Amino acid sequence: MTYALVFTDQYNRRAARFLKRHPQLRETYRKTLLLLQANPHHPSLRLHALSGKLEGLHSVSINLSYRITLELIIRERQIVPINVGDHDAVY
After folding, report:
1. Are 43 and 28 in contact (CB under 8 A)?
2. Which of 1, 9, 22, 34 has the highest local Cβ count within 10 Å?
3. Would you tell me how many other CB atoms lie within 10 Å of the CB of residue 50?
4. Long-range Cβ pairs for the range 34-40 (8 Å, 24+)
5. pLDDT in tens, 5-45
6. How many domains does the chain have?
7. Could you tell me the residue range of the domain that residue 72 belongs to?
8. How many CB atoms lie within 10 A of CB 65?
9. Residue 70 falls in which region: left (phi positive, over 0), alpha (psi -120 to 50) or beta
10. What SS3 state is found at 13?
C-alpha cells in the first residue's frame, strides 16, 4: 500500500527554489519522492525522527548532502513534505 504525498504551496515554492539552484538533482529528488511514496521506511531513505525545535517531524535523505524534512502521518498514510535543502537549511 502506498502513502499519499500531500504538497503544500509553501513546500512547492521551496522545492522549486531548491531545484532551480540544483538542477542536477532533479532526477534524484524525483526518485526520492517516488520511493518515499512507495515505502517511507526503505533503508536508502534513512528515515529518522527529529528532535529539539523540529520534534514531531522526520527527515529523509535525497543524497549524502541534501534532505527533505516531513510530517509523517501513519494512520492516514499521508506524508506532508515541509522543507528541502542541505543539512543547515532544513535543520
Report:
1. no
2. 22
3. 16
4. 36/3, 36/5, 36/60, 36/68, 36/70, 36/79, 37/2, 37/3, 37/4, 37/5, 37/79, 38/2, 38/3, 40/3, 40/72, 40/79
5. 999 999 999 999 999 999 999 999 999 999 999 999 999 99
6. 1
7. 4-90
8. 11
9. beta
10. helix
Residue type, 71: E
pLDDT at 73: 87
Q: Which amino acid is at 10?
A: Q
Instruction: Determine if the pTM surpasses 0.85.
Output: yes
Residue positions counted in the chain: 91
Grid coordinates belonging to 28: 534524484
- CA pair distance 2, 91, nearest whole angstrom: 27
